Amino acid sequence: MLYDEPLIRIMGDRAILVELGDDISPRINRKVRALYVAAKDHRIKGIKDLVPSYRSLMVVYDPLVLALDSLESQINEIWNTLGDARLPESRTVEVPVVYGDKYGPDLEWIADYHKMTPQEVIRLHTQPLYQVYMIGFMPGYTYMGEVPDALVTPRRKTPRTRVPGGSVGIAQKQTGIYPVASPGGWQIIGRTPLRLFDPQRKSPCYLEMGDHVKFIVITEQELLQWRP
Q1: 17, 24, 140, 158: which has the fewest C-beta neighbours closer than 10 Å?
Q2: Binning pLDDT at 50, 70 and 90, where does residue 213 land?
Q3: Integer CA distances (angstroms), 5 to 32, 82, 86, 141, in order
Q4: How confident is the model at residue 85 (pLDDT cuts 50, 70, 90)?
C-alpha cells in the first residue's frame, strides 16, 4: 500500500529513512524513484547521499550543516510537489544467461521443488520483463521482480560462502545477479557474462534502478567466447 504521506524514521544521528509504502510494487517503487530524482534536483545543502530501495529512500546528511527538522520539512515539501512526476525513460536491457549445470547448481533443486522440469524453470524465468527495483547489498547487485508465481522459491537454508560473479539467482519473488564473487543465499540457476559493476566505467553499474531486464538463453560456448 502506498502511504498518503511519507513515514520518516530516524536512522542514527546522520540519516533518515523515508518510507513510502509497505510492500513491493511498481507503483510504490515509482514514487521512490520520483522522490529520489526530485531530492537530487533540489540539491539541499547538507545532504551527503541518497539511497533508494524498494519502498523507501534513505537520506544521509551532515547534522552540522542541516538540522533534522529542516531536513524533514524539506523532504515533505518535495513530496507534496511530486504529483505525477515524469521520470527518465526506462531502458530495456537484454541479459544473456547460460542456465544449469555448474553455472546454475540450484536449477535441478528448483525444478524438483516445483515438480517441473529444468527446461520449464528456464522458460518461466525468461518469460517476464523484470523491473530493477533497486541496487544494493553490494555495488551493482540488482534486485528485480517479480518472478512468475510458479517460480516463487525460498532462499537456501545454508548460504554459500562463495557465489561466482555473474550468477543469476532466485529468492522468493525476486531474481537478481551477483556482480562479483561473494557469499550468498539465493538459489543459483545460471550465469551471465555481463560485467554488472566496473568502477572504471563512467556509470559503474551496468543496470540501474528503473531499468527493465529480459533474460536471454545462451550456450556455454557463447558464455566462454563472450566479448563485452
Answers
A1: 158
A2: very high
A3: 12, 12, 19, 29
A4: low
3-state SS class at 203: coil
What DSSP character marks residue 88?
Answer: P
Q: Write down the architecture of domain 2-80 according to CATH.
A: 2-Layer Sandwich (3.30)
Q: Give the CATH fold of the 92-224 domain.
A: Cyclophilin (2.40.100)
Report if pTM > 0.85: yes
CA 86 distance to own-chain centroid: 21
* Structure confidence at residue 166 as a pLDDT band (50, 70, 90): very high
pLDDT score, position 228: 67
Q: Rounded to whole angstroms, how far apart are CA atoms 45 and 205?
A: 26
Q: Where are the beta strands (DSSP E) in 146-219?
A: 160-163, 167-171, 174-177, 182-184, 187-191, 212-217
Sign of CA dihedral 12, 18, 22, 26: negative
My answer on whether omega of the bond before 146 falls inside 30° of 0, hence cis, is: yes
Which set of grid coordinates corresponds to residue 222?
A: 557463447
What cell does 83 get?
Answer: 504529483
The cell numbers describing 171, all together, are 529468492
